[in-house]
Structures are given as C-alpha cells and as structure tokens.
Amino acid sequence: TTVWVERGEYREQLRLRSGIRVISRERRGAVIRLRSDASEAEAAVVAMDVVGAEFSGFRIVGDSGTPLGTGLYVRDAAVTITDIEISGAKNTAIEFAGGAGATMIGGEVHDNPGIGLAIRAGAAPQINLNEFAKNGLSQQAQGAVVIEAGARPQLTRNIFVGLRPENLTMLSDADRAA
Length: 178
Known about the structure:
Layout: E1 2-5, E2 8-11, E3 14-15, E4 21-24, E5 30-33, E6 43-48, E7 51-56, E8 58-61, E9 70-75, E10 78-82, E11 85-87, E12 92-97, E13 99-105, E14 108-112, E15 115-119, E16 123-128, E17 131-135, E18 145-147, E19 154-156, E20 159-161, E21 168-169, H1 173-177
Parallel strand pairs: 1-4, 2-5, 3-6, 4-7, 5-8, 6-9, 7-10, 8-11, 9-12, 10-13, 11-14, 12-15, 13-16, 14-17, 15-18, 16-19, 17-20, 18-21
C-alpha cells in the first residue's frame, strides 16, 4: 500500500507500519513537526519492528515553537528512507538502534543542535549518498556523529561537512584515526 501525502504541515508523530510506503507527493513539500506540547523524548517519525516500509520525500523540522527531540528513530526495522531533510533536532536527528535492513539514501541532515547521526550497538544500516552538515553544535550534544561499539553500518558516498575526527564519539582513539 502507498500513502501519498499532500503538501502541507503535519503536527503529529508518524509511526511507520510494515508493508506501507509513505511518500510526499511533492519533494519535501510535506513537513512533519511535533505538537507544541510534545516532550523532547518523542521522535517525529518512528519505525520499530517493521518490514517492507518506506518513508520518502519529507521534511522533519523542529524550532523554538515546535520542540523536536529526535527526528527519525529506527529500531529493528527493514525500512527504506529516501530524500528526507531533518533540521532542528535537539537530541538526535536520526538514530538507528538494533537490527539490519534499514537503508537511508539521498537525505540532508543539517542544523541540528543535537547529534546528526547516531548508530547504536547492534544496528547495521546502509547509509548512502546523504549530506550531514552543522550538527552536534550544542553543548549537550555528544558529537555530530555517534557510532557505538558493536554497530555495523555501511556508509557509502556520504558528505560530512565540517566533521573532524573529534566529532566522532564513542569510538576508541585507534578507531577515530582509522
């Protein structure tokens, strides 16, 4: 099943379901923001324990009037994420936790005070052709990119603007040098 989403601003949390493709009809014309009373622990888009899901063409935005703790949270999900844009996430723009099968292609993750990309132990996402810029700049952020021990990501042809080895956290000094 494919759900085509019209241009507009949607103030809600989206939970992806198995076998469902959720696609913005106009490239990045559909914008997801959390409700103004949402907690900073909430994610705008959640993919947990799903297979065959797709999320494509959306913008996920947070600002002073609309809090955004996490933009996109993926756990144990075989989901394809394409052409998304995430900005304004206070904690984490995109977080992969556990399992293989998640793929992110052609996204822009920028201007997030929190971590731009977090890959937790046990996660094995494929992350290809994305741009990450100006993330992890708040004093509370653990870094711009976090890859935990035990994670097995495949990162191919991504652009990390302004990322220095010290911006990678939770890695050993030897891993950072590599």
